[in-house]
Amino acid sequence: MKKILIGAPVRQEPAILAEFLRSLRGLERDGLAVDFGFVDDNVDPASRELLREFANHEPARLLPAEELDDHYERNEYGHVWTEELFWKVGRFKDRLLRHAVQHGHDFVFLVDSDLVLHPALLRHLVAQGVDIVSEVFWTRWHPGLPDRPQVWLRDQYTMHEQRRDESLPQEEIDRRKLEFFRKLLRPGLYEVGGLGACTLISRRALLCGVGFAAIGNVGLWGEDRHFCIRAAVLGLRLHADTHYPPLHVYRASELPKVEAFRAAIPRLSHRVEALATFRAAMADWGTTHHVTCRGDEGLGHFGPPLRGALLAGASDRAAAARRSREVVRTHVAWTTQRDLDDGAVQVGAALVRTGSRDGVPVRDDLGALAVLRAGPDGAFRIVDLQLQRLADPQQVPCVRKTHGNRVLLSMLVKDEAGRHLETVLRDAARYVDEVLIVDDGSTDDSVALCARVLQGVPHTIVRLGASQFHDEHRLRRLQWELARARHPDWILCLDADELFEARMARELRGLVDQDAYDAVAFRLYDFWDDRHYRDDALWCAHRTVRPFLVRALPDLADEFLVAAQHCGRWPQSVARLRTANSDLRLKHLGWSRAEDRAKKHERYRALDPEARHGSAAQYASILDRAPNLVAFAE
């Protein structure tokens, strides 16, 4: 169960605060453990009493505010902020972030106290699986101005894309700005450059160091800008979600809108449920694979008449797909929807269908118009669907496939011929599609052994000549770049002494043929002989999980930890991917022979004499005569 802290600095008018707190009470919490934290900065006694009353009925903690002589002015023209007020609010928010870290929360949901939230919003944001996401709302910041979102693309509040070397006429700026606004009006999850006011932040982002303190050499106005810059520098992406927009009660005169907002909640929920059904149907429907294809994939999302019509040609399509070795995946690029008079929902969308046929890449860009209606069970079904090929292709990356993924084994080798290399390669060759060997200056017949064992398996052997292991981070980056250059869907990175349990051969496809996560983590067991692994305070790698299998995403940053030893086998950006933990175990055979342990002990002493990149105690323990060993059973 995810543990969530909903937090807010509060200085608010009683009538607006009451609506805010009412919406917090109404949030759906199934599967979530929710706590509340408020920094009480109110000057109105009635507002303070509202917070105390809320805390009497909910798991809430009221944190005292700073005793500062400040004045926060609000009127019908807007809110008046000063430099001191910004950083005071930033300190309040950072207190809430620290509170969440100290009390073990998985997420912090920072919400401004003049928002009224949809009941489904919290669960929806948690389900997005990203580190930082704000729900978009629209506000008229000053009378006479149009409504604008509280998210932006860059700088202070820039709403259009523009490269640093671009000079744009105002007409093009306006066109790009309108394009951004239109995107935010469609339900979806989008990457942005700035956000705030209604933001879910993961624990991982908190531990990375996000916060609202001022960055001394940045002149942008407002604590949220400094939070966003800090997050970007830490490699964290900022997302905006547009499914359940809150109501922003920016002025007291807007309080009458609350009743209409609450009345519209069922209709908005109705639309989002219909949209989710449409997305699931399009993602599943027509997805084919020459091994598993039946032709009826995803048709459970369709109503009986339409389902029957689609099923009529399903077996023929499946047979054709098998004959042509076809792999197709449908991606929903964008959607929009409207209510129909009879309670149905109409969804318009752009679809991108990508894949391959007999090894040749194929792509279709389609427009879709669907009608969905809820059945007696309350579930939506597609009752009408029209498709038309689009003349202008949609510019969307399509990198996640649920079928037909190619897995590349990437392995670094040096003088491994007389150890475990042959066993490891023969085993892995049973379940991977291709092998990359990077030979780091072997002086034995490791290269010849690899070529012999991998006969009949697509493989590439790259010989580097002189060894580069003394500068491991550069070597690992080269290995990564060589693997990416083979254009696999997934990369499995193993060392020449790492061997999976036998069941990996039948379970690998289930790990990679999905689009829910982008990395898979496993437990690594350090074997001390053929049947036992070591288990003590210094040898406990098997108590944690780490990624060994990663989707080869085209936009992954490739910076490695700069270290001569123990730099890791992946770029640091892999740590930010959605990761699944597998119960498959990985056997590390490198310590299983006494002569190998002695050589490794000497190597660590030579390469890292001061133990700056590792543990001196662990280095010394390599030669322990009676370590604690545990039997390993497959």
Quick summary of this structure?
The protein has 634 residues and is α/β, with parallel strands linked by helices. 30% of the residues lie in helices and 26% in strands.
Please tag this protein with its features:
634 residues, alpha/beta, Spore Coat Polysaccharide Biosynthesis Protein SpsA, Chain A, Nuclear Transport Factor 2, Chain: A, 3 domains, eight-stranded mixed sheet, 16 helices
| Rg from Cα | 28 Å
Number of domains: 3
Secondary structure category: alpha/beta
The helicity comes to: 25-40%
**How many strands, what sense, and barrel or not for the largest sheet?**
8 strands, mixed
Structural commentary:
The radius of gyration is 28 Å and the shape is globular. The protein has 3 domains: 2-255, Spore Coat Polysaccharide Biosynthesis Protein SpsA, Chain A (Alpha-Beta Complex); 264-389, Roll (Nuclear Transport Factor 2, Chain: A), CATH 3.10.450.230; 407-631, Spore Coat Polysaccharide Biosynthesis Protein SpsA, Chain A (Alpha-Beta Complex), CATH 3.90.550.60. The protein is α/β, with parallel strands linked by helices and 634 residues long. The protein has an 8-stranded mixed β-sheet with strand order 3-2-1-6-12-8-13-11, sandwiched between helices. Strands 21-20-19-22-26-24-27-23 form an 8-stranded mixed β-sheet, with helices on both faces.
